[in-house]
Design a protein that fits this description.
single chain; about 210 residues; mainly alpha; 8 helices
Length: about 210
């Protein structure tokens, strides 16, 4: 059980490391509107993640028994989604362009909060991602307290990592490190997503 939690937590954190829409939202908030605005955006993004997880857990609790046909089909879809995005990450050849100048604006924490909450809530990939993660945990018969612990852990990680990210991007050395290693981060994230997707698919096929 601990090994599975570590795999899920590692995949979640790897997804945070690989620059996505939230990363560029935070970057823009920090550079254009200042640190307070960016911290608000980080809190909004964390809340959107928490709400997505709650929605996914509610939906999973309403599904038929885990050995039903519908649940098996859902697991296969989740596994296929993880395999697809993992493959995309492994094949990615992008270059990360980061602006060098900082405007030093004085934005509003509350405005940043709503900006982060809205932008992240409207991301359709977020509930799909958490549906896959919690589908893995449910398939392994993770108890209720374990699901709550996982949900709390991932929310806290999103909040503090996003707040730390804005501060790290102020340092040229970190910016250079991220630009040089964005492909390696994509590969790492892709490998973990493929492992989770394969675990889901094999588990379903083995139970058929």
């Amino acid at each position: 059980m601990l090994a599975l939690f570590l795999l899920v937590a590692s995949t979640h954190f790897a997804a945070l490391l690989s620059p996505g829409p939230d990363f560029f939202l935070l970057l823009r908030a920090g550079l254009v509107n200042g640190l307070r605005h960016a911290d608000g955006a980080a809190a909004g993004i964390a809340l959107a993640n928490l709400l997505s997880m709650l929605l996914v857990l509610l939906a999973l609790s309403l599904l038929p028994a885990s050995n039903g046909t519908f649940w098996q089909v859902l697991q296969l879809v989740g596994g296929g989604y993880f395999i697809w995005i993992g493959t995309q990450a492994l094949l990615a050849t992008r270059e990360l362009e980061l602006p060098q100048a900082k405007a030093g604006g004085h934005g509003s924490w509350l405005l940043g909060f709503f900006e982060g909450l809205l932008a992240s809530s409207l991301n359709p990939k977020l509930p799909l991602f958490y549906a896959g993660l919690f589908g893995v945990l449910r398939n392994a018969a993770m108890p209720g307290w374990g699901l709550v612990m996982s949900m709390g852990w991932m929310t806290v990680v999103v909040l503090f990592w996003d707040m730390a990210l804005v501060r790290l991007l102020d340092h040229p050395r970190w910016r250079s490190w991220l630009q040089l290693r964005v492909r390696a981060l994509d590969r790492f994230c892709g490998a973990l997503l493929l492992a989770l997707g394969g675990w889901l698919a094999i588990g379903v096929m083995g139970g058929v």
